[in-house]
Amino acid sequence: MNKNFEEYLYGTLNKLKNNTIKEAMEYCLEGGQRFRPQIIFAITKGFGIDEKEAYGVASALEYIQTYSLIHDDLPGMDNDDMRRGKPSCHKKFGEDIAILTGDSLLTHSFSCITEADYNDSVKVKMIDALCKYSGLFGMIYGQLLDVTAKGEITAEELFEIQDNKTSGLFKFACLAPMFIAGNDKYEYFEKLGSMLGVVFQNQDDLFDIIKSEKETGKSNSDVRNDKITALKFKTVEELKEHIDNEFKELREYLKDAPFDTQYILEIIDRMANR
Question: Which of 137, 221, 236, 255 is exposed most, by the fewest CB atoms within 10 A?
Answer without folding.
Answer: 255
